[in-house]
Amino acid sequence: MLLLRYSSSVSPSRSIIIFSQFNRKESINTSRVVRWRPRDEYKLTQSELLDRICRILILERYHAINKLYFDYSDDILDAVLRKLRFNPNACLGFFRLASKQQNFRPNVKSYCKIVHILSRAQMFNEARLYLNELVGIRKTNSSVSLVFDELVGVYREFKFSPVVFDMLLKMYAEKGLTEKALVVFDNIGKFGCKASLRSCNSLLSNLVRKGENRTAIHVYDQIVSTGIVPDVFTFTIMVNAYCKDRGVHKAVDFVNEMEYKGFEPNVVTYHALINGYVEIGEMDAARGVLKWMSDRQISCNVVTYTLLIKGYCKQGKMDEAEKVLRGMKEYSLVADELVYGVLVDGYGRIGKMDDAVRVRDEMLSAGLRMNLFICNSLINGYCKFEQLHEAERIFMGMDLWNLNPDSYSYNTLVNGYCREGHVNKAFELSSKMLKKGIEPTVVTYNTLLKGLCRGGALEDALHLWHLMVKRGVAPNEVSCSTLLDGLFKVGDSKGALKLWKDVLARGFTKNTITFNTMINGLCKLGKMVEAEEIFWQMKELGCTPDDITYRTLSDGYCKMGDVEKAFKVKEQMEMEGISSSLEMYNSLISGLFKSRRLDRVNDLMVEMHATGLTPNIVTYGALISGWCNERRLDKAYSLYMEMTKKGLTPNIVICSTLISSLYRLGRIDEGNLLLQRIVDINLFSGHEFLEKIPNPCGGDLDSKKIAESLDETANKNLLPNNIVYNIAIAGLCKSRKLQDARRLFSTLVLRGFVPDNFTYCTLIHGFSAAGNVNEAFDIRDEMLTKHILPNITTYNALINGLCKSGNLDRAARLFHKVHMKGLAPNVITYNTLIDGYCKAGNISEALKLKDKMIEEGIAPSVVTYSTLINGLCKQGDIDTSMELLDQMAEAGVNPNIVTYSTLVHGHIRGRKQIAQLYDEMNARGLSSGIVSHTNRDLIESCDQGMMNAYNMSEAVC
């Protein structure tokens, strides 16, 4: 029972004023009996109070309500609305009073009642107003059930008004809340209410706008099945849906069906068809729609031709686009700013900025005004093709046209600065953007994040991330993926995993792109266990892996040499109904070669053909590279010829692979022959190494054929780049023509060639291996002046050269300085110096180095042990060499034929030991012909050139 009482919010002074008013009324009519006095209101029951409020409302004495002493509550408001439901004005008046209270707001039930009451009275404007407020109150709630269920409850109690459900459907649709609109649409028929065509059109239109075309088609089928007759707007919307979902050809069938049913498609319908053909690049069919329109006497307008121009611009066919513009004049159509804007944008996208400016000037000459879209298109074009000064000029000159840069203008120029590495300028522009009152969007932050990550400034990127969140800009999947990718590229997997927890906490649990970024980053770092954990986490959180997810995981296993797991990933993907792509097969081919499973390569190719996939240039590149690494140039050459017969043009990678393989196998002349076909011959005039082979025979004949095949394509497609020039220099060094290599290097630099670490390392190794250590160090110094820091491979070459020239002390000093240069010696560094000490007869120092490398966490290789065993055998220390053999076994390093041959030829005493070695070799599957001339040669090659071959393969391959 609600008692009438003084509200705690009413001040004492207010009570006094009200009380004095009652006294004045009483004094005016002293002879009249007072029917109710303030003190009597305390005794009113809930029912009596409700009756009194309702009487006042019916008499429309709304001001008198304020004189009653009661607190507004959900119970009172609902009771009044229920009792006066057939008096809409009284209900509306009381609802308005209740809504204006400072400490009270009507709840969902009250809103639902007033909406039903007003709808029954056909007071639709007021009903929509409160329905809009109701939807706004619940917009943060992901469920529609609360509002819908309450409206249903009021409908069943009041027995009116079903039109409310149609109003709710239309409101959800117009607000883009399509999921909620669909709930209403699916249930509206249960209450004897049929959705209006206008509401259905709104729902269909918003579904198509949001890309939910398949859903729109299903909804349309339901609309027709309920007896609602579509109009031309419905059909036009559906043409759009079919164009985007099942293809424009299905849309054409739909238009024919429309006409069969007696509907006449309008110009908007045909525009939807034209746009459908434009999107899939069928411009001839798009022009065919114009004839269709002409046959039905529907006139083309500026929009029609704008769509055609857009289509040609999208394909980069700017001449055709301009023909359409000129053709408009024949139909007395005047091109507007939008038409010219599309053309300017088209030229900008392909980098023809002079033509873009020409079209802009033509537009201005026609009396049309410059607009923001054209300015932004010009800025974008200039930025895209690295003409930042011109982009800045357009940006700064916008005020001359009375135009203000918008968010897109700023973001485009910020992106241009970041792409060119001018991150500071990008931040300065962002600050100006903020001062101009344009809030940086998530696009702005993403662009800056990408610029910082590209420049390796990960700490600044993380700081910007936190600043972005602090300013209330919610990161999206691009933000997350950009920063995660940046962390992985600098090898900071811990930082990436820490950020990943934050990403998941922000709700990106169903974003495939973000998951793929994580899996890709971990795979590239070789952390396959962690990558697989993310993959299973992805599934657990309800995010469906796509073909990129599976391909990334499979490729990661291939690069690690675990091809069996890669094939299991493929099988799992196919079980999920996702077909293997050509990219996955290409990755598996490389994986098979890496894991030396050559027997399965042909089977995989057969399977690939069976699935209908055709090998592309990457496929042949993987096969050729694989067989070259296996020294099977016959197979590589055969695949090359097969590739060219299929019309595929060899790329620079394939040619470089073949040339490198020839150099590695000592077939220098053949390598030079191929090289001269892809490098400008005039560039090498005077260099003997490019002379043609006079009488090719054997394997040279195949090289000759490939060289001839390159004649037709080299000038068009195989433009020389750093890879080719580096191979040319490496070829000269390999053939010991070091001065030619030096002269070629100088010539290339004059022609704009920018040498890299590989270039200098190749030259340094060449001169070091030839014993010209001073020249090698001069090249190292030259390298430093170019601000190119030598890596450990460079110092390995220098140490090798010093060892070969007998400067062992200097080599040791350089070895100890490597740490000071911020580099860590690797197994090759140690092996080089160990080999030097062994050849100098200082075995004790060599053994100390072996122990030191173990302390540093570097595992000795078979070369390490073989070199030490060879040195010990030469000194006659057979017992220690046998101990090293045992250490190899304990360390899990398998001895090879060189190791055993060295021991055998070390004059081991006692047949028992020889028999033991013989048994071990057989157990390891090594050849037992250890006393053959071949093995003697092998030992000598190990003694004389083991380190040279090892280092050269690292430097050149």
UniProtKB/TrEMBL annotation:
Keywords assigned: Repeat
Protein name as catalogued: Pentatricopeptide repeat
Highest taxon above the source species: Eukaryota
InterPro entries per the UniProt record, alphabetical: PPR_rpt, TPR-like_helical_dom_sf
PANTHER family cross-referenced by the UniProt entry: PENTATRICOPEPTIDE REPEAT-CONTAINING PROTEIN 3, MITOCHONDRIAL
PPR repeat residue numbers: 161-195, 196-230, 231-265, 266-300, 301-335, 336-370, 371-405, 406-440, 441-475, 476-510, 511-545, 546-580, 581-615, 616-650, 721-755, 756-790, 791-825, 826-860, 861-895
Entry similarity comment: Belongs to the PPR family. P subfamily.
Statement: the UniProt record of this protein carries the keyword Repeat: yes
